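Retro notes - structure team

What went well: the batch runner handled both jobs without manual restarts.
What didn't: labels got mixed up in the shared folder, which is why I'm recording both outputs here explicitly, each with its sequence directly above its tokens.

Job 1
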Amino acid sequence: MPKLALSHLEATLLFALLISVVLGVVTKKNDKDRLHYGLYCFGCFVATVIGLGWLMRLGHG
């Protein structure tokens, strides 16, 4: 099996994508709501990662 080498950002975005898909599927009843909620969750995850990344950069100097 080939080795998968992901950067920290790529791994975090992949995790966010997978969690967003699961949350969309298990919490909503129709496909339109699932898609919208999944995209909303993914956007929130990405915004949080970017925000925390900037906080760590500012805190580290």
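Job 2
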Amino acid sequence: MNRNPHVAVVGATGAVGLEMIKTLERRGFPLGKLTLLASARSAGKTLPYKGEAVPVKELTQEAFQGVDIALFSAGGGISREFAPAAVRAGCVVVDNSSAFRLDDTVPLVIPEVNPGDVKAHKGIIANPNCTTAVTLMALYPLHAAFHVNRIIASSYQAVSGTGAKAIEELKRQVAEIVAGHPATKEVYPHQIAFNVLPHVDSFLATGYTKEEMKMQNEGRKIMHHPTFRASVTCVRVPVYRAHSVAVTAQFEKPVNVEAARAILIKAPGLDVVDLPEKAEYPMPLFAAEKDNCQVGRLRMDCALDNALCFWISGDQLLKGAALNAVQIAEELLK
């Protein structure tokens, strides 16, 4: 890999694409050249990088000549269509969609958890689902110490996880309701302002949603833990940015709060915010736009044996997407 690689961002004008560009700059990623790719209708726009206006080019099959690393965040369909062309051009793809996550030939990586898996790539490396990534930032260090058997979790997912139109919908609905008008909806099947929707992604025959099953399926692959079990309810909440998850985790080895806290304090990419007597606990308001996830509300579960409860918040556009992708690119340079 070139020490100063030519990096392309695919889906550069989207919410995650914009964060990828900012994250490359903020972390001082040693890129030699930056190419921004998006749909034909975005071509010709410019986006800022290090004080310069970088033009956006149209994404085509031929756009990857000379590119070393391509960070994809333009949806699964685009990834399936264009990632193979990028690989053929000699490029390593870091893909933020669900297209390749459960493909046995594609590593699924959280750099704080399984950085070594990067080496096994055959041209494509997958970024995990945002809720899974945030949860595993606290769950994996505990698993490494106490061996997790199963979790029961509920997510509290921000609207920005759906995209820019969902942020506008929440803003619009709040204004409409405050003005005494009925709320208009386009993105979600129900009003999201002053409401919560127990519906993220599409429903499966089991009654779970696809999003809810990602925690188990992706968690097994990332943690190399094929018997890991996760029962999850994913909920969309009227928050702009940063997902939160309430987790009950049951372990094989004896666990207690003090031992768990000592491990979490040392865990990379994680801040322990756990002084409930001072009303200090993780919140999306304070996790938003931060690289680190926050964990707190640590306590022994009172209904299950040898189980720990915790609450975690993390910016799903950063650790759940753009930051994780850039960290994978950093691993590729090591």
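One thing worth noting from job 2: The first strand starts at residue 6 and ends at 10.
We'll revisit the folder naming next retro.
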